[in-house]
TrEMBL record:
Enzyme Commission code: 2.4.2.22
GO cellular component: cytoplasm
Major subcellular location class: cytoplasm
Gene: xpt
Chain's role: Converts the preformed base xanthine, a product of nucleic acid breakdown, to xanthosine 5'-monophosphate (XMP), so it can be reused for RNA or DNA synthesis.
Family annotation (InterPro entries): PRTase-like, PRTase_dom, Pur/Pyrimidine_PRTase, Xanthine_PRibTrfase
MF-aspect GO terms: xanthine phosphoribosyltransferase activity
Domain Phosphoribosyltransferase, residue spans: 38-154
Keyword annotations from UniProtKB, A to Z: Cytoplasm, Glycosyltransferase, Purine salvage, Transferase
Identification of the protein by name: Xanthine phosphoribosyltransferase
Entry's family note: Belongs to the purine/pyrimidine phosphoribosyltransferase family. Xpt subfamily.
Listed Pfam families: Pribosyltran
Positions bound to xanthine: 20, 27, 156
Known catalytic reactions: XMP + diphosphate = xanthine + 5-phospho-alpha-D-ribose 1-diphosphate
UniProt organism field: Adlercreutzia equolifaciens subsp. celatus DSM 18785
Length: 192
């Protein structure tokens, strides 16, 4: 998506260790007009799919997913990060390795908000190694929900998550795929 690529070029900051900082418009300060246009693009890309729920993970997926849910006219559920899992069967839970914080955390979704009747579009801000997404996919599987697609704002194509999920057969639509980036010059190359 041209508009998002331009914005990443303009306001993104390339950090060492393969990290792209986009907190000026995506995950700290949030450009809601940009989110609206991203949502419209996903509506076009997932047209015809019977999506009745958006699923994301806290914290930085929530803003984008909320705008997407508004455009699709469906509820949004976010997986919560938690210290303690209660094992009484009222929660789906999984463990996720965090790319940015280099630790493992538990995430939960209440069984009240996801189930076999749901046709889910998963939305997140970044896709790197795919750990966050695999956690959300596992939660959907536990719930018996159907994953209709995955919408990612920025995929880092030099990390394996995206290509692995496409090979596994998921309809994964990333609006910008960064193929390479150089912290010394700030140069960013996108997959065309
Ligand atoms: P994964 O689980 O695919 O390895 O990483 C995805 C998660 O890590 C995203 O939800 C995002 O919050 C975070 N993340 C991964 N790479 C980056 C990055 O380059 N910049 C930022 N800001 N977050 C990232």
């Amino acid at each position: 998506m041209e508009l998002l690529e331009e914005r990443i070029r303009r306001d993104g900051v390339v950090k060492a260790g393969g990290v792209l900082k986009v907190d000026a418009f995506l995950n700290h300060q949030m450009d809601i007009e940009l989110f609206s246009q991203m949502a419209e693009e996903w509506k076009r890309l997932f047209a015809g799919k019977p999506i009745n729920k958006i699923l994301t993970i806290e914290a930085s997926g929530i803003g984008i997913a909320a705008v997407v849910a508004h455009h699709f006219g469906v509820p949004v559920v976010f997986a919560k990060k938690t210290q303690s899992i209660n094992l009484d069967g009222t929660m789906y839970s999984t463990r996720i390795q965090s790319f940015t914080h280099n630790r493992i955390y538990d995430v939960i979704v209440s069984t009240r908000f996801l189930g076999p009747d749901d046709h889910v579009l998963i939305i997140d801000d970044f896709l790197a190694n795919g750990c966050a997404l695999r956690g959300l996919l596992e939660i959907c599987e536990s719930a018996g929900a159907t994953v209709e697609g995955i919408g990612i704002a920025i995929e880092k194509g030099f990390q394996p998550g995206g290509d692995e999920l496409r090979e596994a057969g998921y309809d994964l639509q990333s609006l910008a795929i960064v193929e390479a980036m150089d912290p010394a010059t700030g140069a960013i190359e996108f997959r065309s």
